[in-house]
Amino acid sequence: MSSVHTVDQAYWFSPLLPHVESRSTWRSGHGYKTHSHEQFSIGAIEQGSTLCHYRGEIRRLRAGDLIFIDPRQPHSCNPLPGQTRSYHMLYLDTAWCLKRLSERCGYPVTSLHCRCVTLRDPALFARYQRLIRQLHRGEVAAAEQTLNQLITPLLLQYCSPLAPSEPLPAQPATRHVRQRLLSNLQQAPSLETLAQELNVRRETIVRQFRQDTGITPMAFLNNARIEFAKNLLKNGVPLADAGYQSGFCDQSHFHKIFVRYTAATPGQYRQGRSIFDNK
């Protein structure tokens, strides 16, 4: 049995606040593969330390630290060897964040880039903690008010409406591979097929893709499939159907990859919906 079955963790998501998702994990020594999220992510360390690989650097986060992770940016945050950490993650819909920035800037903002990666701000951290408590108590109206008080100054002070220097992969080959993989998650083209389409060697595709994105094409595909599956599970799609629609050949493979990228089973993730939709 995977060790994630013994991890003390909880998810929150609800149609009452569709632009928000949260995850809380306590005293876990479980690690993650490098992955990314479509949402803007804000993490908070409650106990212990974690090593975060992000933007080509390794940062050590301690209790009281916040971390901001741009949408679609590869990262991994793992505990120190032999130690555990407790943390919360807040995932905010990117379109919602861009709308908030646009309203404040007075012009359409199409990209989001956080200039600050880690922050130690006791007042902001306390507000973040209050939001998490309200979410898990089902106090949606209060949570929405706290979220607005948290996110507006945060976006204005620490995030930029300007994109980073290269928001998209520089190489046409990498763009082609991304588009082809995302266009059909159920029957994604093989590396051999992509190599033939681009008239290059498979090794060249992998090397260039990793250089442009920080991960391999297979890791990118698995991550995309897991993010798609999470959306299906949030909307009540049965586990077997979610795995199949996301491109996994069987439930065992789906379970294995889901755990590897989320440190939770598909059933544990879906339980967040069944618990909190009833509040």
Write up this protein.
This protein has helices at 94-105, 122-136, 140-158, 172-183, 191-198, 202-213, 217-234, 239-245, 251-262, 266-276; strands spanning 8-13, 20-28, 40-47, 49-54, 57-62, 66-69, 75-79, 85-92, 113-114, 118-119, 159-160. It is α+β, with helices and mostly antiparallel strands and 279 residues long. The protein folds into 2 domains: 3-160, Jelly Rolls, CATH 2.60.120; 172-276, Homeodomain-like (Arc Repressor Mutant, subunit A, Orthogonal Bundle), CATH 1.10.10.60. The strands form 3 sheets. Strands 1-2-8-3-6-10 form a 6-stranded antiparallel beta sheet. Helix 1 (94-105) crosses helix 3, helix 2 (122-136) packs antiparallel against helix 3 and helix 7 runs antiparallel to helix 8. The radius of gyration is 19 Å and the shape is globular. It holds the Pfam family HTH_18. Residues 175-272 form the HTH araC/xylS-type domain. Keywords: Activator, DNA-binding, Transcription, Transcription regulation.
